[in-house]
Design goal:
Helix content is about 50%, strand content about 0%. The chain is an all-alpha fold.
Length: about 170
Amino acid sequence: MPEGLGGEAQRWLDEPVSRCYGCRKCSGGCPMGEEFDWAPHLVVRLAQLGREEALRGSRTLQLCTGCGTCGERCPNGIAAGAVVEALRRRFGEPGGAGTLHRGFLAQVRRRGRIHELGLATRFAWETRAGMDRAALGMALWRHGKLPLWPPRLGGPARREVAAMFRPRGGA
């Protein structure tokens, strides 16, 4: 068994990468795969071999949206997107689109609506994007496109949104 296979990778990663046999279904279904420098199946393979350092700073880590298509297509239940997310955390790299996606869903869950300024602020904080977009934000605010205060959703509509995020029972 190659060094790292199921060993070191399993200490920092919750995905069962040792079960991957390289069918490439994850890569074939990835909507962003053509933009990556490392296809999803290669991300999993590098994690298997304990060679994940090769992925540091890669476009794959920056562009993976965490959509979950790879995990849905995998016959062994391995989510290459989860491997990417674990590598981002391990390397301290910004989350990119996956961070934006999680922030969007968190706002919908909490408020029932999106507050663009709050979402942009969270994204900048989590990805360490800093103030490089502050001028754009100010221009949007001046033109009335970026409200300072979040919109409210109440009553029955708020309960309907909350119900969408409750786990479903049964199989």
